[in-house]
Amino acid sequence: MSLKVAKPKKNYRIGREIIADFRYCDKRVIDDVDLMKRLTEEAVRTTKHHLLDITARKFQPIGVTILGLLAESHISLHTYPEIGYVAVDIFTCGQNKPEPILKYLEEKLGAKEVYWEYIRRGTMRQWQTTYEFDGYKQQIEIEKLLHRRTTPYQILEVVKAKNLGTCLISDGILQVAEFDAAAYDKQILKNIGKSKSVLIVGGGDCSVLKELVKNKNIKEIFLFERDQQVLEVAQKYLGASVALKDSRVKMFFGDAIENIEYLKDKKLDFAVIDVVPVGDKREKKFYDQLIKVLHKNGVKNIATQGGNYLNKKSVDIVIDAINKNYKKTTIEDVYFFSMGKVKFIYASNLK
To answer: What mean pLDDT comes out for the span 9-22?
Structure first.
């Protein structure tokens, strides 16, 4: 007779798991294998959990690993005495909770800082962090991974996300979401007016490009994208085929700052910088050089996003670069379900 296996419901909770970072622990304690084993046994027993077996290993020159098999599930500790750090993983099912074990170990190991994350096991949901910096993290629920590839420049993922539809993610940062892409495009292009020649820097997801080709007043569109493979992904998964085949579109691949020089004889009415600022060390140099080149080429109007409004460092970098080259700057904060509140920066009147 075969055993029928029930299909778990999406909201069926099997257990609770805590993963934690203990920092600034007592280095002598966490490098003593016998003491670590005894403290783990005490932590399980005093919190009324049930230890079935335990294994301890001392590494040379330093470091300890403890693995405990619980009736409720498991516990593991990996110590790095050289930096006073312990990685903790506690998984329990049934009525017993992992928090009391964590609290006991925190005290006994002398942890000065504890950072932990609570996971409900068995929820059958996949969450992905799509944007993160100090004090802020954004996650979306992934229903299906449609495509993933590693290019010379980035890791690209196309996913089907709950409520957001098809999304493009680059190096873990959300680039575009089907749900509110049209609203984003209209916002960044709000000042395009009667422009006939338009430049796009970035925008490899082709969302802005798809909006631009609808405008019959535009005669030329120049798209500068560092990574050609982004366009391949956009064509296959993001509905960009028609826009990319438009006869008005000219594409350039590689370094935009260097390649824009090829357009020095063109009269560019409007430039869209469709790049998500992330606050890395290269950002200031990139925007300073890019805005300077656009100014040199006589681009009269610029629209760009400055990233999430909480990321003040990136926003200030973009604004500073623009203010050096343009007389008039307008800033707007706009909320998007997929990205949170985003700053848009518009510049006009060359200095």
So the answer is: 81
Query: Has 50 been annotated as catalytic?
Result: no
pLDDT in tens, 35-64: 999 999 999 999 999 999 999 999 999 999
pTM (2 d.p.): 0.77
Q: Are residues 132 and 268 in the same domain?
A: no
Reported as half-sphere exposure (CB side, CA atoms, 13 A), residue 43 has a value of: 29
Single out the catalytic residue among 74, 76, 78, 348. 78
Catalytic pick from 25, 50, 76, 93? 93
Catalytic status, residue 73: yes
Catalytic residue (choose from 49, 73, 314, 338)? 73
Residue 225 lies in a domain: yes
Is 6 part of a structural domain of the chain? no
Answer whether 82's CB lies under 8 Å from 72's CB. Answer: no
DSSP states along 123-186? ---EEEEEEEETTEEEEEEEEEEEEEEE-SS-EEEEEEETTTEEEEEETTEEEEETTTHHHHHH
Task: Reply yes or no on whether 49 is catalytic.
Answer: no
